[in-house]
Amino acid sequence: MTTTTERPVRVEPEQRPAVRLRRPGWKDPRLLVGIVVVALSVALGSWAVSTASRTVTVYAAGAALTPGTPVTAADLRAVEVRLGTQVDRYLLVADGLPDEAVVLRTVAAGELVPASSLGAAADLAVRAVAVPVTTGLSERIVAGAAVDVWYVPEPPAPTTGAEPGSTAAGDEPPQPAMLVGGVTVAQVDEGEGTLVVGGPTTVHLLVGVDDLPAVLAAVAGDGTIALVPVGGAG
After folding, report:
1. Over pLDDT 90: what percentage of the chain?
2. Is residue 128 within 8 Å of 146, Cβ to Cβ?
3. CA-based Rg of the chain, rounded to a whole angstrom?
4. Main-chain phi, psi angles of 79, to 5 degrees
5. What pTM, to 2 d.p., does this model score?
6. Which of 113, 177, 108 is nearest to 146 (CA)?
7. How far is the CA of 91 from the CAs of 53, 62, 119, in angstroms?
8. Is residue 117 within 8 Å of 105, Cβ to Cβ?
9. Is residue 187 exposed (0-12), middle (13-18) or buried (19+ Cβ within 10 Å)?
């Protein structure tokens, strides 16, 4: 009897067709998107460089501009500057001056005039108050400077038989008190032409509406008013 030995059948793995990479054509969406992104980047970079290097003519303050002051072209000077993307923040000579414009906040001499610093008189939050000052004024108290306003009460009259300047027993002399701080000086009148030597100097202060009662009461009182420049004594 003959025995037949079966050989194992070897199964070859199925061969898949090789995938060939194709170069992207001009109509490939990915290629088109890449071209658009590169073009936009180049255009944006060119615009940024051009904007940064471009100069514009803007107004600068010829002298200190104080709130409430009407502004004319004579108060300003034209300067060429590079503002980049901040060009809308300042007053351009090409746009001209607003009609009946007044200063809303202090602009220092030589400073570029912000567009927001000018407006209508109705938008002004301060009022000009003429304050007589009999004490010596610091050289730092000029138009545009910021000062603290102090009220110095008049010493009480001495009692009978007491020395001048003394107070009754147990009474403390009245102390100076600050009325308002950081007030802007609009104008200083030196009193030219006055016949009184050493007379008071009138300083026009721009006082906030809420602080007007205290300042007006001090002006009408018997004491004196002292002005101290902000940042220390002059």
Report:
1. 22
2. no
3. 39
4. -135, 150
5. 0.59
6. 108
7. 19, 14, 12
8. yes
9. middle
